Amino acid sequence: PPVIRREDYQPPAWLVPQIALDFRLGIEETRVTARLSVRRNPAGSAASTLHLNGDQLTPLAVRVDGEAVNDWRMDGADLLVELTGEAHEVEIETSVNPAANSQLMGLYASNGMLCTQCEAEGFRRITFFPDRPDVLSTYSVRMAGDKGQFPILLSNGNCTATGEGEDGTHWAEWHDPWPKPAYLFALVAGDLVANHAQFTTRSGRRVDLNIWVRSGDEQRTQHAMDSLINSMKWDEEAFGREYDLDLFNVVAVSDFNMGAMENKGLNVFNTRYVLAEPETATDADYDGIESVIGHEYFHNWSGNRVTCRDWFQLSLKEGFTVLRDQLFSADMGSEAVKRIEDVRVLRAAQFPEDSGPLAHPIRPDSYQEISNFYTATVYNKGAEVIRMMRTMAGPDRFRQGTDLYFDRHDGEAATCEDFVKAIEDGAGLDLRQFRLWYAQAGTPQVAVEASHEGDVATLTLTQTIPATPGQPEKQAVPIPLRIALFDRDSGRHAGERLIVLDTDSRSFAFEGFARPPVVSINRGFSAPVAIDMERSNEDLVFLAAHDDDPFARYEAMQSLVVQHLVAAVGGGLSETARAEGRKAIGQAFAAVLSDDGLDDLMRGELMVLPGVAYLAEQVLVADPAAIHEEREGLKAWLGSELAESLVALHDRVSGVPYSRDAAARGARKTKAQALVLIAAGDPAEGARRAIAQYRAADNMTDRQSALTVLCNLEGPEREEALADFLRRYQGNALVIDKWFALQAGSFHPQVLQHIEALSQHPEFTLNNPNRARALYMTAAVNPKAFHDASGAGYRMIGELIRKLDPINPQTTARFVPQLGRWRRIEPARAAMMRAELEKIAAQPGLSRDVREQVSKSLG
Ligand code: HT7
Ligand code: ZN
Fold first, then answer.
1. pLDDT in tens, 90-121
2. Centroid of chain to Cα 513
3. How many other CB atoms are found less than 10 A from the CB of residue 636?
4. 368 CB-side CA count, 13 A
5. pLDDT band at 472 (very low <50, low <70, confident <90, very high)
6. What is the mean pLDDT of residues 808-818?
7. Distance of alpha carbon 310 from alpha carbon 10, whole angstroms
8. Is residue 581 within 8 Å of 567, Cβ to Cβ?
């Protein structure tokens, strides 16, 4: 497959200032007529050929300035039309079959409704068009279809006219006044009902808000609506951004490849990020809805009003919008807990990506299939990079930078360089060297050496950035580190400082310490780096109990556990050292359990042990099963050592009645963590408490946390709860997804047999991405299932990839990176993982999506 390179960018030869689309809707056949007003781009080449992208389309008719033409030709899947003048009207007819579109890109059918997904290159599956984000057009859309089947007809912008047609049909016309690239086009037609509300912007514009769902689901949309209204208000206050249409529609669909899509004025969402009520949605689901609703809404400015010049600039909109949604969620809830969760996601998903065969910079240099670049690197590391600029500038100056960015580039297709320049100019920063963060892949490692002489403490910091594919050598990047040095005697520090390490190595001296201080570094996770510093258990226990930066407190707990588990798995711990390590961890946990100054939300966070993926990252070649077993061993030890306090804690938080306030959410979080540890220490007591919690639950958070624990255990309680859960939520697809995921994610000894049986369950289908991911993605990230010593986990995912690829390549390609980590896994397992990749590579007719990921993983 051809490789697309960033350096080859050329402006388009032809622009399309306007497009009129006419749809005659049908589930099995939709006819599309596209009328493009095209004109030469003075900034483009003088080519007379109009190059229109297509994907599995045949032109049924081509007209230029009203005349049918026959001298068009195909270039692969694309349509080429010769034009002679400066401006023309080009009309093209195509036909598509939405029911047959299992890829869920372009126009497709989901549960009897029609909807579109055009980012990144789906529009070319609807009609021929210069499907690139730097071609901006105003869209006029007319659609007609059966009124019974499609009572609701939606597109971008405002509805300008509706009417009745013949034979029970009706039609609607929509116009979007804001020029946009084709990837932001959307159409939805179906039998939907709405939750309506209104929002008045700060300049007085009254905006109608609708969240469209299938009848019966409307009472589950209030949290999404509240989140939308909060987002609109927050963006005005935090970034000075106001909504710019009189209407904002959100539609929930159950078949969707990703979380949601920010189409102008018509966001399309995976149902899982819209529907929630306490009985069916966990607190984490509620948080997910708030953040995704916010994320898509914020794209209206960071993505839509200012869009990307080309897909290499994806982080321009995604990294920035992730940062915006993170800041929004932090303001809506607990800033400390949000930061911890964001870093946990980064470490679990992005760090492994950055150290594997698919590592790429946040602004990639090349791709074969752009869908493969919607990654944790582009999104989450992208957000971290912009967050560092904010940390260095301070929030107010950063805001001046973003104001300048939006002013300067409103209505344009911009680049990451444009963004950096605007922040540089607006915030008054020198970001010359900082630009390397956009160009280099790999997570910087910062080694910290502490020394002490007289009353001076010196920290020597050294950065190295590991080699990544295509980038053997790296240059030093500026790394802003928030730092505080605690005096051992007073237990306090004299104020936090921001230091910037911008060379390979540098020493920083701090005066006034009679004894070596306790170092708290990278507070708030001010830089997305790995800190390598030898620290005594005593110092870490001190920070875990006393650091006034909540993230640093969490980090100290994590480091204590990481240091211990890594040493234990590496075989480097004597029995005495193991006992000492556990004792220190036990001490830190006991302090967390009994600290009255902690709120339960934070307590729950501090009780979460580092995950196996992150632990595996700490060593060059990992034995994931050994890590998993050692981690489980520590859980069991903590559970029995702290049994009394854990039981008392579980009893206390079980008495807190359900509400959505922070205290009650904290109680549920702590309850879940306490139950996990109790069950690890004493499975019989765990089962007793878990089934009691399950039976008494009046909300999904408690029910799910009880069932999570029961799924790991053998016994009648497990079977009772699983059968009850299935019966109780029959017909609710999102909850049935949980039923599959809970079993696929369990540490039960027979987890692989359970997954195999579940794949044959009548409720299972590969055609729905949520269901396929619930079973198989959960299994692929479950070390107990995926890394089973027999290799059965690898074979299961390999087989899945081969089976799912012809149905939905985009969803399939996301499974490949799990197998692609073989080089970092111990040799026996690595050989089996590699063998699966080779088997996939040998499959004829592999999609471009999967081929790119597999060949890079093998290469
Ligand atoms: N901007 C949206 C990306 C997206 C997408 C990309 C490829 C294939 C399907 C997709 N659905 C949505 C989502 C977002 O980041 O807001
Ligand atoms: Zn996004």
1. 999 999 999 999 999 999 999 999 999 999 99
2. 43
3. 16
4. 15
5. very high
6. 98
7. 10
8. yes
Q: Is 295 in the pocket of ligand 1 (CB under 6 A)?
A: yes
Shortest-distance Cα residue to atom 13 of ligand 1:
261
Candidate from 117, 185, 261, 320 with most ligand 1 atoms within 8 A of CB, to mutate: 261
Probe ligand 1: pick from 105, 258, 369, 378, max atoms within 8 Å of CB? 258
Say how many CA atoms lie within 13 Å of 167 toward its Cβ: 3
Taking only the tens place, the pLDDT of each residue in 271-326 is 999 999 999 999 999 999 999 999 999 999 999 999 999 999 999 999 999 999 99
**What values do phi and psi take at 105, rounded to 5?**
-125, 135
CB atoms within 10 A of CB 505: 13
Q: Which residues are within 8 A (CB) of 828 and not within 5 positions of it... i.e. 6 or more apart?
A: 789
Q: Output the residue whose Cα is nearest ligand 1's atom 6.
A: 119
Kindly report, as residue ranges, where domains of CATH 2.60.40.1840 are found in the chain: 445-533
What would the 3-class secondary structure string for 139-170 be?
Answer: EEEEEEEECCCCCEEEECCEEEEEEECCCCEE
Tell me, in angstroms, the distance from the centre of ligand 2 to residue 321's CA: 6
Q: CATH topology for 307-439?
A: Neutral Protease; domain 2 (1.10.390)
Ligand 1 pocket check for 302: Cβ under 6 Å: no
Average pLDDT over residues 526-540: 97
- Evaluate: CB of 754 within 6 angstroms of ligand 1: no
- What is the position in ligand 1's atom list of the atom closest to the CA of 810? 8
Query: Domain 4-191 is in which class?
Result: mainly beta
Q: Any residues with CB less than 8 A from the CB of 718 and at least 6 apart, and which?
A: 687, 710, 711
Measured from the CB, is residue 852 less than 6 Å from ligand 1?
no
Q: In which residue ranges of the chain is CATH 2.60.40.1730 found? A: 4-191
Residues of the chain with CATH 1.25.50.10: 729-859
Look up the CATH number of domain 445-533: 2.60.40.1840
ipTM given for this complex:
0.98
Question: Is 852 within 8 Å of 372 (Cβ atoms)?
Answer: yes
Task: In the chain, list all ranges with CATH 1.10.390.10.
Answer: 307-439
Q: How far is CA 31 from CA 95, 97, 157, 523, in A?
A: 5, 9, 22, 57
What is the pLDDT averaged over residues 639-653? 98
- What is the spatial distance between Cα 321 and Cα 379, in angstroms, rounded to a whole number? 8
Superfamily of domain covering 729-859? Peptidase M1, alanyl aminopeptidase, C-terminal domain (1.25.50.10)
Closest CA to 353 of 857, 859, 858: 857
The CB of 119 under 6 Å from ligand 1? The reply is: yes
Active site residues: 296
Alpha carbon 497 to its chain's center: 31
CB 680 within 8 A of CB 636: yes
For the chain, how many residues are written? 859
Residue 79 is encoded by which pair of tokens?
A: 């349509």
Q: Whose CA is nearest to atom 11 of ligand 1?
A: 258
- The reply to whether ligand 1 has any atom less than 6 angstroms from the CB of 437 is no
User: Phi, psi at residue 537, to the nearest 5°?
Assistant: -55, -35
* pTM, rounded to two decimals: 0.99
Burial class (CB in 10 A: 0-12, 13-18, 19+), 635: middle
